[in-house]
Write a structure and sequence with these properties.
The chain has 16 helices and 21 strands. The chain has helices at 5-19, 23-27, 36-39, 61-65, 68-73, 116-128, 175-180, 198-214, 233-240, 253-260, 269-279, 286-299, 326-338, 375-393, 482-485, 498-507, and strands at 31-34, 78-81, 85-87, 103-109, 132-137, 141-144, 183-184, 189-192, 219-222, 243-246, 265-266, 308-310, 342-346, 403-405, 413-418, 421-426, 435-438, 449-452, 458-460, 467-470, 477-481. It has a domain at 403-527: Golgi alpha-mannosidase II (Immunoglobulin-like, Sandwich), CATH 2.60.40.1180. Helix 13 (326-338) packs parallel to helix 14. 46% of the residues are buried. It is α/β, with parallel strands linked by helices. The longest helix has 19 residues, at 375-393. The structure holds 2-acetamido-2-deoxy-beta-D-glucopyranose (3 copies). Ca(2+) 2 binds at residues 223, 247. Belongs to the glycosyl hydrolase 13 family. One of its GO terms (molecular function) is alpha-amylase activity. The active site is at 223 (nucleophile), 247 (proton donor).
Amino acid sequence: MLLSFKHFLSLLSIAQTARAASAHEWQKRSIYQVLTDRFARDGGDNTPCDTGKKQYCGGTWRAMIDRLDYIQGMGFDAVWISPIVENIEDDTDYGQAYHGYWTKDFYKLNPHFGTEKDLMDLSKALHDRNMFLMVDVVVNHVGAATDPPDYTSYNPFNSRSQYHPQCWVQDYTNQTEVEVCWLGDSKVSLVDVNTEDEGVVRELNSWIGELVKKYDVDGIRIDTLKHVRKDFWPEFAKSAGVWTVGEVLSDNVTYTADWSRVIDAVLDYPTWFQLTSAFKATNGSVASLAGVVTQAQHTFDGGEACTGSFLENHDQPRFASLTKDMALIKNAMAWPFINDGVPILYYGQEQGYEGAGDPDNRESLWNVNYDTSHPLVSHVTTLNKARKAAIAHNDGFVKTPVKFIQQPDPNAALAVSKPPFLTLLTNVGSKGSTTWQIGGTFAAPVIGELVDVFTCRGYRTSEDGHLKVESEGGMPMVMLEKGALDRDGSICPEVFYGSGAAATMARRPGGMGVLAASACLLLLTSWV
Ligand SMILES: *[C@@H]1O[C@H](CO)[C@@H](O)[C@H](O)[C@H]1NC(C)=O
Ligand SMILES: *[C@@H]1O[C@H](CO)[C@@H](O)[C@H](O)[C@H]1NC(C)=O
Ligand SMILES: *[C@@H]1O[C@H](CO)[C@@H](O)[C@H](O)[C@H]1NC(C)=O
């Protein structure tokens, strides 16, 4: 059958729409966040970046292309890169603009990171691997190292009237001030773009549409979302035409929720605050994590589904700077992968990086040579595999809100149900212990066999759905219904595939090697 030219064009436009990744497609993804300057460098020089100097360290988009195996090998299928546009070149009291958040020219690329061709090639290399590209964008401000700024040096906003008059944001409870005053200080000011000016708004909308098309971007992360009036954003997001997720730095669910209504999603900062405090020490409370998540599920537009779920980013101290207890670290790292949001991992966490606040948390990755033998690389790889298996097994997985199953020790034990996941987390640490109990007056999320994806041990509930599990070394357990494993032989293959299993088990400490592979699923069965 011959297609008319018009029909052909409409098919083409359907194909293009399909490429513009929707929120629903992003929900199934897993994002790796990189600071381009610190992730990969051309050539063989592995000298670590001296983060304290706050200077460019040489990372490029071209070098990133050569390291996509490393990212994809851990199971990530999207990469969030730091801002791409040209920044001010000054050597300021706060260093250089290697992070990319001090815009100078919206229409030029930052030459430190490469050329237009390099960025297009990165985009293509990602798409060839069926991975998504997310670009970080800043519209709230440009950067200035002089006070007053030289307005004529910016493009396209080169006149003073295109910026708000200078005043500093001091009172964060005054939303007008948050929106119209400036961030930064007189050493480096973040000159506040006048997003009330119609000409400026038109320009920004056309700029983002062009940028997304030119580099075939699949999603954008929006910096300082709460510093621009809410009704600016819907049209901007529409002009972008791809998934938008914004930064609202706040621990307040109600406040953050207002921003979840103007673009596709927010980064889940309210949960991050509780996640960090729940797991950074053995005296924290996992109950407050459950509390904030439940509140956000009922308050954010679309609930927690689609929020960006993270444990680290470039603005906050790395989690391993707060505790060295590997059990606590592994529990906290598991959270973004088992909840309703889209998991985001900040580069370097998988290598156990411990940098505290900015600039220490912006280490280079080349000096560890993209080592895949680090235990946290395995940890995150398993988490990604488990999430993918859960998505493949249950069509409704991404849309099913997590439920918390009340625990005897609510401050130390967290049981989270999101079928086919049953996740058991604890903050008792490597020297402590606790018991999780499922069932009783609480609906059993699953009846039957479950497999912990980290140890490959099997558990079986009683016929009425009771299960009692003792913690071991304070480690998290991410259990999948046994049926969910079948579709993905990459998790716990020994559970299903005979003899190799015995060999794998014999290598594990704890004398488990004496058990036959077929007994694995029945190990530690608890009947309550
Ligand atoms: C809030 O900030 C704006 C802008 O700085 C200012 O004009 C206004 O007086 C402030 N409102 C209050 C209640 O302080
Ligand atoms: C949280 O934000 C809401 C809405 O902006 C505000 O009314 C409330 O006072 C805030 N709560 C706290 C504890 O700051
Ligand atoms: C937990 O312990 C630390 C140090 O041991 C202490 O500084 C902190 O206040 C404690 N937190 C709580 C909630 O008790």
